[in-house]
Amino acid sequence: MLCSRFLKLDHGRQHGRAYRTVEEGYRSMYRFYERTLLWVMDHRRATMAFSLAILLGTFLLYKIAPKGFIPSEDTGRIVASTETAEGTSFEAMSQHQQEVAAILGKDPNVDSYTSSVGSGGGVSSTNQGRIIVKLKPRNQLRLSADETIRELQPRLARVPGIRVYLQNPPVINVGGRISKSQYQFTLQSPDLSVLYSSVNDLLEGLSHVPGLQDVTSDLQIANPEVDVAIDRDRAAALGVSAEQIEETLYDAFGSRQVSTIFTSTDQYWVIMELQPEFQRDITALQNLYVATSTGTLVP
């Protein structure tokens, strides 16, 4: 009874152009499928041989095709992250970086490179650096990016005082974080003491895992530092405040802008600090004098 209400008589009904076009396409596919099915049934041996060839080709492609999460591809670029001991000065880091850059520049597979030292661009301290290496075009008979990395690693490992981490950057950077390796593992803990000890344990364990190399951490907590304790009673007796002592230390070992020189086309900041040889020597603290409120210098 419901069918009599909803179904309409379709015999003799004229359909529109769109309907006829879709219907004709469907009938064409049906006729094509019918012809191919009849051909397959008439050539069963050839069909089975073709199916077997596809199966064997699938196994072959499975073995030779890259199977990583993001397969390594040669984009003509290599990223080198460099690192020296914590507390290394900018001058010493620059010297080590130049030794690494000289080796890269002499490699026949390298076209050019850009070297940077210090914080910024994924680098967090002065004991770290980064080198962006551009490889020569493939038509100049160079090695691939991965082969170039394997060829450079033993030579760069012989440079004393610095470690170099080479990686072929993936086409898609998952996570967007720049690091010294392609794969990263993040540790988090509300207890800093537990976190610091766990990092060392994890590094020790991963270093013995076969197949892993250049295992490292971005935890920087071994930087040399000096704690200065202020004798407030003696400082008060000499007329020196804690703020004046802090300002003097910052003037000596920080980077304080004390003036600006203006020219017709540019301006230059004047930075006051100790000479580099005194900044690296803790005994330089004995040569500092603090100005009191009356202008007297107190050692």
Automatic annotation (TrEMBL):
InterPro entries in UniProt: AcrB_DN_DC_subdom, Acrflvin-R
GO molecular function, one term: xenobiotic transmembrane transporter activity
GO cellular component: plasma membrane
Domain of life: Bacteria
The protein, known as: Efflux RND transporter permease subunit
Species for this entry: Eiseniibacteriota bacterium
Origin organism lineage: Bacteria, Candidatus Eiseniibacteriota
